[in-house]
Amino acid sequence: MSENPRPIDNLQLRSEEVQEIITTPPAWLIRWGITLVFLITCGLIFLSFFIKYPDFIMSRVIVTTVEPTEKMIAKTSGQVDRLWVSNGEKVQAGQILANIKSTSDVQSVLLLKKLLEEVPFGEENGFFFPLDSLSDAVLGEIELSFVEFERSHMEFRLLERLQPSLVQLEGSRQSIHEIQERLTSQLAQKEILKRKVSLVEADFNRNKVLYEGGIIAAKDFESREMEYLLMQEQVNGMTITISQLQEALVNAGQTLKSIQVAKEQDESRALINLIQSYHGLNRALKEWENNYMLVSSTNGEIGFQGVWGEHQFVQSGEHVFSILPNERTELLGKMIVSSQNTGKIFMGQRVLIKLDNFPFQQFGTLLGEVESISVSPDEEGNYIVYSSLPEGTKTSYGKEIQLTQELLGTAEIITEDLSVAERLFFKLKSITEY
Question: Where are the domains of the chain?
């Protein structure tokens, strides 16, 4: 019987040969494998010095015009009394948008505002104001200021029309005139009397000589002496009268000046009160407008925010309207960036803006450039970064975005490019240092 090996033994022998080949690869395969891995590793290291990519600093961004969108904020809480415009309507600067209900009648307030703006108030028109036009006005919160102005205006007009000081001035002037006439008459009489005294004195002296010479009797001399003394008494009395008239003239002049000063003081006081109450009324009107009227300060397109109909209640500080300016030639992006890595941001760096309303996969991104960086952080430690948009609202896909409002999105500020090798080096350096 032949001793040929069995098939199972042959299979086992072959399996052992295969295992030997697998477990003991050829030397040439090992050499080429190591060489290939080395070359690939060297190639990757070599490429790491040339492959560069930038860092991105992410932040939220608001795209708006250089002339910012005007946000109308309610200054007081209350019910919307009337909407004067429609959503999306073009508005002009100074146009009334809405008013909040108050105790004042809006039409009365607007009439008062019109009169204050159109009626000149000054010396050229004698400080006239047509108060009769407001006899039925309901001014509510402005009422006290209006009543004060009305009272001052009435006092000024009465003082101007009646002129009570004029009667006193006229009486004082008449008194001065009469005193001057009497004084002039007394001075003239005094001159005559002085002449008479001179003659009587000469006659008295002659009779005195005759009496001393025994030529005339004592009775005649005494008669001449009595006449001389009476004349002297008249002169003294007239001197006193003239002195009293002069004093009365001085007093009358002082009285006249006092009346004139009082007249000027009354007129000045009335005018000052009138002007002050006029300005007070203007201030009260502006304060009422600021609290209860929403007025546009720019030309643009209005968009309703926190209000959609009349009789709606709004809270103080609530954002009610937005007005997008008509002039939109220049746009900017406003970014609030945390202080981390802001040292990498420099002027002129590119900014990729992905808008929330327009998916960047479909519309592309807006391209910007860093234009300015705030020199110090805000209260929350963030920096404000502004970027210009050289291409406007044209995206990287060549599509034009219609700017009908402020656009919100995410900004990626592209900082300096670094190679893979540099990044690994910086990472290793930071590990070794710390």
Answer: 71-90+297-325, 95-289, 327-432
Tell me which amino acid residue 349 is.
Answer: Q
Q: Please state the pTM of the whole predicted model.
A: 0.62
- Rounded Cα gap, residues 270 and 118, in angstroms: 23
d(CA 154, CA 137): 17
CATH, range 327-432: 2.40.30.170
CB atoms within 10 A of CB 26: 9
Dihedral (CA of 357, 361, 366, 372) sign = positive
Identify the CATH number of the domain defined by range 95-289. 1.10.287
Nearest to 96 by CA among 388, 284, 266, 323: 323
Domains 95-289 and 327-432 share a fold: no
CA distance 373 to 384: 6
CA dist., res. 327 & res. 133, Å (int): 41
Reading the chain (434 residues) residue by residue, the pLDDT tens digits are: 444 555 555 545 456 665 665 666 666 667 777 788 877 878 777 666 666 656 778 889 988 877 777 888 999 998 999 999 998 889 998 899 999 999 999 999 999 999 998 888 888 888 888 988 888 889 989 999 999 999 999 999 888 887 777 777 787 888 888 888 888 888 888 888 888 878 877 877 877 777 777 777 777 777 777 887 888 888 888 888 888 888 888 888 888 888 888 888 888 899 999 999 999 999 999 999 999 999 998 888 888 887 888 888 989 989 988 888 877 667 889 998 888 778 888 888 889 999 988 888 888 889 999 888 888 888 888 889 999 888 888 888 888 887 766 788 999 888 876 665 565 665 565 565 55
**CA angle, 185 then 186 then 192, to 5°:** 95
The CA R_g of the chain, rounded to the nearest whole Å, is 54
